[in-house]
Specification:
It is a single chain. By secondary structure, the chain is an all-alpha fold. Helix content is about 65%, strand content about 0%. The protein has helices spanning about 5-20, 25-35, 40-50, 55-60, 70-75, 80-90, 105-125, 130-145, 150-165, 170-185, 205-210. Helix 1 packs antiparallel against helix 2 (about 25-35), helix 8 (about 130-145) runs antiparallel to helix 9 (about 150-165) and helix 8 (about 130-145) packs parallel to helix 10 (about 170-185).
């Protein structure tokens, strides 16, 4: 955690420039940006915002984890259920569910919960794992979390990269940012959802319950 405003600003700027210059998907610079954007004041504001709703407040109170997720078992569920679609998403992208560490405070839990549910958010929002899909989901996070310097920095990074390296993709980037931002604002909060209780639920029902609309029209 960064202790002073000046330290946070300097490290955040340096980390932002590093990620602009890095190859997309470089997890080292992503980690540096996550550290630089985790200032105490910003994290507390984000936690306050997420705790406005009972779901988020209870999540911080309980610090729950999804635990060990059996992709093989989920893949055997009915084809259009959240669990089956999530398992297919993970298997097709050669991903494994991340095992969450036991958090010692609300800030740790926030990072842990966002990390272990990231790919579930991909499925629920209909965001693909290509560049446009990732940018759409980044904008969705900005709308849902409100105070996240990390996700806002990722959106800004992609816009700056298009400016410097490939201006032809700017319209596509702006389109998916608009889609993700709009979808995130109209949706009910996804933070703090216990997805373990929804694996067997049809994806259309899951999306309707969280007011995630017109997913078929998204990237």
């Amino acid at each position: 955690m960064i202790n002073t405003k000046q330290q946070q600003q300097e490290l955040l700027l340096a980390s932002f420039l590093d990620i602009v210059n890095a190859t997309d998907g470089d997890f080292t610079v992503l980690g540096q940006l996550a550290t630089a954007s985790s200032d105490q004041v910003g994290m507390e504001l984000m936690i306050q915002h997420l705790s406005i709703h009972t779901q988020g407040k209870q999540a911080f109170a309980n610090h729950f984890s999804l635990g060990i997720i059996d992709l093989g078992a989920l893949s055997q569920l009915a084809k259009n259920t959240l669990g089956c679609l999530y398992a297919e998403h993970m298997i097709q992208n050669q991903l494994k569910p991340l095992q969450a560490q036991i958090p010692t405070n609300d800030q740790d839990f926030l990072g842990m919960h966002i990390t272990e549910t990231h790919d579930i958010w991909h499925v629920v929002t209909g965001s693909k794992t290509d560049m446009l899909g990732e940018i759409q989901l980044e904008a969705f996070y900005v709308a849902q979390l409100k105070m996240s310097r990390f996700w806002l920095a990722l959106v800004a990074k992609n816009l700056l990269k298009s400016l410097v390296y490939d201006i032809e993709v700017a319209d596509q980037y702006m389109a998916v940012i608009t889609q993700g931002w709009t979808m995130g604002n109209q949706a009910k909060p996804l933070f703090g959802v216990n997805w373990n209780t929804l694996w067997e639920t049809p994806i259309e029902q899951v999306r309707a319950s969280f007011n995630i609309l017109d997913v078929s029209a998204k990237v």
